[in-house]
């Protein structure tokens, strides 16, 4: 992610690698500090407000659900509706208690986080500045006959680099656009929901579906089924459509070339094997398998050391 502005931009205009790495690191740390001390505290506070308002939302949902058996007696049973509402209320209250307990427990990890905030930027600086020296040191201890591994590495390095850079840009663009759209309608918890929408792009297809549930729930609670709700929901759908049909093709034109069915199967399979982290790394793992499959049948693999 940081190699691209270092090598392609700053070094291309004449900066030494040391100065280029320093400038990129300063910008990177500045963005992290902005996220840590401006964006995340506001989103966290909005999350607390959301948990506080959740009982009211559930009561409103229960009142609405209670009217369904009278409106549609042939389709709805009052006992089932009451049981579902009570079950949902219990789950939400337990979730709120869990969040509070986690918040208190997370205070213990603040010291560790402070140490990481110092060590990680230093590690990033030296990784960017001395990248070639480190790669040369690794090459010296690897076997010389590593043609297949070298071919797979070259393909993986290019595709994963493009994928990570594209995903970060997609997260920022989608998150900011969603936040501005929600601000336009004065939607509550707009920053929190925009952050969730931004992170949802990390999980293809499934993430967008899951994050739509809280967006619709908050908008329904605030606006009801009026014009504002449908207008806000339409703006949200337009952003999602532009992301899938315009932004993704532009950002990932040189990135991983995987069929949508392969992506969905990768998410399902790796998610079933390793849970959240399997879903998170589904596309990189699928890209690795694709690179190995493409390189394996080639009988004229060139030596990576040449």
From TrEMBL:
Pfam family, one: AI-2E_transport
Domain of life: Bacteria
Main location: membrane
Signal peptide: none
Membrane topology: Multi-pass membrane protein
Presence of the UniProt keyword Secreted in the record: no
GO biological-process terms attached to the record: transmembrane transport
Classification via InterPro entries: AI-2E-like (IPR002549)
Any one Gene Ontology cellular component term annotated for this protein: plasma membrane
Chain segments annotated as transmembrane: 20-44, 102-128, 168-187, 193-221, 233-252, 258-283
Cell compartment(s), UniProt: Cell membrane
Key words of the record: Cell membrane, Membrane, Transmembrane, Transmembrane helix, Transport
Family affiliation: Belongs to the autoinducer-2 exporter (AI-2E) (TC 2.A.86) family.
Protein name: Putative permease PerM
